[in-house]
Amino acid sequence: MDTILPLLVGYFLGSVPFGLILTRLTGGGDLRAIGSGNIGATNVLRTGKKGVAAATLLLDMGKGLAAVLIARHVWPGGEALAALAAVLGHCFPLWLKFKGGKGVATMMGISLGLAWPIGLAYAVVWLGVLFTSRISSLGGMSAAIAAPVAAALTGHTAYAPVLALLALLVLFLHRENIARLRAGTEPKVGSKK
Question: Are 177 and 144 in contact (CB under 8 A)?
């Protein structure tokens, strides 16, 4: 049970589609019919509702953080399982026929929950690349790669395998973005595409 419950709690917390819910509640319609069709904050930003996009970002981070903190409190040692499941829940939510987001914000939350140095490295890389390139996908992928590296370098090696697995998932989910980056056609933050 100490294995199954952190996975279940992490998955169900992660699978709450805040971007979709907030966009509907604020009159934006079905987020999946806008822009990239993604349920994350970057696509919410394409609706023109910056406040809703910021709320989505914070809530998607928060659900990852909450999953890890609950697991640490209730099932000590189950944090990595809850972290893994939270990102999987966000990316593959049962309620949306397993078509969710790309996991970047939720991975930020779990990184912070696992160990603040990992979360700090994630945030610095994410924001640094985002502000210099103005390309959301590049910032997110760079941060995801930084997380397992930071875990290994800061003595949190037990978390590095899960974070490496999640980094690979984030890269896989960004495969179309990678193709556009290579072609020079990836939109910058603020673009309606």
Answer: no
